[in-house]
Write a structure and sequence with these properties.
The chain has helices at 12-24, 41-45, 64-74, 90-98, 108-115, 117-126, 142-152, 178-193, 247-263, 295-302, 306-315, 393-406, 416-424, 426-429, 437-440, and strands at residues 5-8, 28-33, 48-51, 78-80, 102-103, 156-160, 170-172, 198-202, 208-217, 221-233, 236-242, 267-276, 282-288, 331-338, 350-351, 354-356, 363-367, 374-375, 382-390, 408-410. With 445 residues, it is of the alpha+beta class. It folds into three domains: 5-104, Rossmann fold (3-Layer(aba) Sandwich), CATH 3.40.50; 133-202, ATP-grasp fold, A domain (Dna Ligase, domain 1), CATH 3.30.1490; 208-440, D-amino Acid Aminotransferase, Chain A, domain 1 (2-Layer Sandwich), CATH 3.30.470.20. Strand 9 and strand 10 form a beta hairpin. The mean pLDDT is 97. Bound molecules: ligand MV4. Residues 132, 157, 164, 166, 201-204, 209, 232, 235, 275, 285-286, 435 line the site of ligand MV4.
Length: 445
C-alpha cells in the first residue's frame, strides 16, 4: 500500500523533482500554483492542480489554510513541502496532522526542536555529536556573554536561536564589542523570526562546510555520506560536490549523525550541517529537516532516489537498506544555474527565447525551464541545476566544463561564466577551499 495522491506545496525545479518520484511510485501528483506558475512544467504534468491566486506571488505558497483546504478538496493523503516556503513550519505540519493528512517530513515536535538552534545544539551534544564550545542557553546581557567568551576564548559568534541561514550573526573579537553586537543580532532576530533569543559559540576560523545526508524512519536511520558545500556567497550555495572525506572520517561522523537522528525519532530526509576546521575537527551547526537543493549530488554517487525514500518512510515504511548497502561511487558536482548577473549576482528575470540543455552519460539537468519560459522575478533565481557524475573529481570537473559549454540560453543572464571560472581556478582544483573562497577569489567575479 502507498499514498494514492500527494499534494506538492511548492513550485519550480523541486516541484518537478517531487512529481517525478511520485509518478515513479504510482502516486498521483497534485500541484498548487500561484499566478506566475499557471503554465509551469510541474503544473502541466500534474494529475490535478489547484489555483491559489494572491496579489503577492509568494503568498500562494505560504497560505497554510488555503493549502490545507486545497489538500482536502482534492483528496490528498499527504503533502510534500519541498524546500523553502512551509517546509520547516511546525504549525503547517500540525494543521495537516489535525486533518489526518500526512506531512512528508518530520513531526511538528521535531521541527520545533530542530528549528530552535539552542535546543537542537543541546540535543545533538547529548547524542554525542561534536559541537563548538558556547553558551549553554540563551544569553541575556553583554556581561554574561563576556564571562562566557573569556572562558572559551575570542573570537566568538552571536547567533539567533530561531535563526539559520546566518541571519543576524555577529562575530565578536573583544568584550567591548558585545553591547552593540548583541543588540544588532537581537534586533535582526526579532524582526526576522519574532524571537530575540541569541546564543554564543566559539568562532571557527577558516572552516569548510560539510554536510551529511540522513534518512530516518522514526526508529532507525542511515546516512548517505557527505557533500562539500563551501562555495557560497551571502549564505547561498553556488556549487556542491561529493564525496569529500576519507572513508574512516565518513564512518566516524556518519555514525554520529545516525545517533543524532535516532535520538529525536527522526522520520524523513535530513541534512546535518558541520564546519570542519583546518585541524580536521568537526563542529555540528544545525539540522535541515527537509530535502535539500543539493540532494542530487548524493543521488548520483549512491545511485539512489532519495526523494522516493523520503515519501516511503512518510507513509510508514521502514528503511529496507542497511548502512553497509550504501555504496559511494565516483564523484559528482552540482552547479546552480541561477538566472543572475554573474558579476553583480543580482536577479536576471525574463523570457527564455532559447533553451538547450546538455546531456550524455553522467549528465543530469533538473529544471522546470523550457524555451518560452518566463523566469519570474518574485521567487528565488534558481533556473536549473546541472549535475555531473564521473569516476574521479578531475574527470567530473572536465565533464562539468564540457556540459556548461553546451548550454544555450537566450534571454536571461546566468552564473555560467562564474562557474567556468571556478572550475578552472587552481585553489578549487587543489581542493583548497573554505567558506571564504569567493571573498578570497574576487577576480572570479
Ligand atoms: C559559524 C561560523 C563560524 N563559527 N559558527 C553560517 C550559517 C549558519 N548556518 C552557520 N554559519 C556559520 N556558523 C561558528 N561557531 C561560520 C558560519 C558561516 C558559514 C557557515 C557555513 C557556510 C557558509 C558560511 C559563511 C559564513 C559564515
Amino acid at each position: 500500500m502507498m499514498f494514492r495522491r500527494v499534494l506538492i506545496a511548492n513550485r519550480g525545479e523541486i516541484a518537478l523533482r517531487i512529481l517525478r518520484s511520485l509518478h515513479s511510485l504510482g502516486i498521483e501528483a497534485v500541484m498548487i500554483y500561484g499566478r506566475e506558475d499557471r503554465i509551469s512544467t510541474p503544473v502541466r504534468l500534474a494529475d490535478e492542480s489547484v489555483y491559489i491566486p494572491r496579489d503577492d506571488p509568494l503568498a500562494s505558497y505560504l497560505d497554510i489554510e488555503a493549502i490545507v483546504a486545497a489538500a482536502k478538496e482534492v483528496g490528498a493523503d499527504a503533502v510534500h513541502p519541498g524546500y523553502g516556503f512551509l517546509a520547516e513550519n511546525p504549525t503547517f505540519a500540525k494543521r495537516l496532522a489535525d486533518e489526518g493528512i500526512t506531512f512528508i517530513g518530520p513531526s511538528p515536535e521535531v521541527l520545533q526542536l530542530l528549528g530552535d538552534k539552542i535546543t537542537a545544539r543541546e540535543t545533538m551534544l547529548k547524542a554525542g555529536l561534536p559541537i563548538a564550545q558556547g553558551s549553554p542557553g540563551p544569553i541575556s546581557n553583554p556581561e554574561e556573554a563576556s564571562l562566557i567568551a573569556e572562558k572559551i576564548g575570542f573570537p566568538v559568534i552571536i547567533k539567533a536561536a530561531a535563526g539559520g541561514g546566518g541571519i543576524g550573526m555577529q562575530v565578536v573579537e573583544s568584550s567591548d564589542e558585545f553591547e552593540s553586537a548583541m543588540k544588532l543580532c537581537q534586533g535582526r532576530a526579532l524582526s526576522a523570526f519574532g524571537d530575540d533569543r541569541v546564543f554564543l559559540e566559539k568562532y571557527i576560523q577558516g572552516a569548510q562546510h560539510i554536510e551529511f545526508q540522513v534518512l530516518g524512519d522514526g526508529t532507525d536511520a542511515i546516512h548517505f555520506g557527505e557533500r562539500f558545500c563551501s562555495i557560497q556567497r551571502r549564505h547561498q550555495k553556488i556549487l556542491e560536490e561529493g564525496p569529500w572525506l576519507d572513508e574512516a572520517v565518513r564512518e566516524e561522523i556518519g555514525s554520529k549523525v545516525v545517533e543524532g537522528a535516532k535520538a529525536v525519532g527522526y522520520c524523513g530526509l535530513a541534512t546535518f550541517e558541520f564546519l570542519r576546521d583546518s585541524n580536521g575537527d568537526f563542529y555540528f551547526l544545525e539540522v535541515n529537516p527537509r530535502v535539500q537543493v543539493e540532494h542530487t549530488v548524493t543521488e548520483m554517487i549512491t545511485g539512489t532516489d532519495l526523494v522516493s525514500m523520503g515519501i516511503r518512510v512518510a507513509y510508514g515504511e521502514k528503511i529496507r537498506m542497511k548502512q553497509e548497502d550504501v555504496m559511494i561511487n565516483g564523484h559528482a558536482i552540482q552547479v546552480r544555474l541561477n538566472a543572475e548577473n554573474p558579476v553583480t549576482l543580482t536577479p536576471s528575470p525574463g523570457k527564455l527565447w532559447e533553451c538547450h540543455w546538455p546531456g550524455g552519460p553522467g549528465v543530469r539537468v533538473d529544471t522546470h525551464a523550457y524555451t518560452g519560459y518566463d523566469m519570474p522575478a518574485s521567487f528565488d533565481s534558481l533556473l536549473a541545476k546541472l549535475i555531473v557524475w564521473a569516476p574521479s573529481r578531475e574527470e567530473s570537473i572536465a565533464k562539468m566544463k564540457a556540459a556548461l559549454s553546451e548550454i544555450k540560453l537566450l534571454g536571461v543572464d546566468t552564473l555560467i561564466p562564474l562557474h567556468q571560472a571556478i572550475l578552472s581556478e587552481s585553489d578549487f582544483r587543489k581542493r583548497n577551499i573554505t567558506i571564504h573562497y569567493l571573498e578570497e577569489h574576487k577576480n572570479l567575479l
